[in-house]
Design goal:
This protein has 116 residues and is of the alpha+beta class. It has one domain: HIT-like (HIT family, subunit A). It contains 2 helices and 5 strands. The protein has a 5-stranded antiparallel sheet, covered by helices on one side. A hairpin with a 7-residue loop joins strand 2 and strand 3. The chain binds guanosine-5'-monophosphate. The site of guanosine-5'-monophosphate has 14 residues, from strand 2.
């Protein structure tokens, strides 16, 4: 069996993290190296390595992750201006190969600059 991903280890409590929310399908934690005053990671419990590996059966799960991102933006008071980012593949900056959405807020974003 493949080794657990970093995020699976966090989800089972082997590695500590600030858990902000969890449900049957996903866990939301604070990013350990925040790129904005609010920087959360929305992580599906299902270990899909990257968005490109998700399939049609994951359609509802993917929608759920966005809905949770939206709820977390409201809960953390950043619902006026926030950014949701998915890095897909090493070439796009992905470092943890377990799908996750970055939710970033409370930062002045440069218009049309799609970096963190
Ligand atoms: P990626 O680069 O794959 O899109 O994002 C991975 C994110 O996970 C990075 O923003 C990084 O700071 C965060 N990260 C890496 N290791 C840990 C950890 O042990 N705990 C937490 N909470 N975040 C981590």
């Amino acid at each position: 069996m493949a080794d657990k991903t970093l995020f699976e280890k966090i989800m089972v409590g082997d590695i500590p993290a600030d858990i902000m929310y969890e449900d049957e399908y996903c866990v939301v934690i604070k990013d350990a190296v925040p790129q904005a005053p609010t920087h959360l990671l929305i992580i599906p419990r299902k270990p899909i390595s990257m968005l490109a590996k998700a399939d049609l059966d994951d359609k509802e799960l993917l929608g759920h992750l966005l809905t949770v991102a939206n709820d977390m933006a409201k809960k953390t008071g950043i619902d006026e201006a926030f950014r949701v980012v998915i890095n897909n593949g090493a070439g796009a900056g992905q470092t943890v190969f377990h799908l996750h959405l970055h939710l970033l807020g409370n930062k002045k974003f440069v218009e049309n600059n799609l970096s963190f």
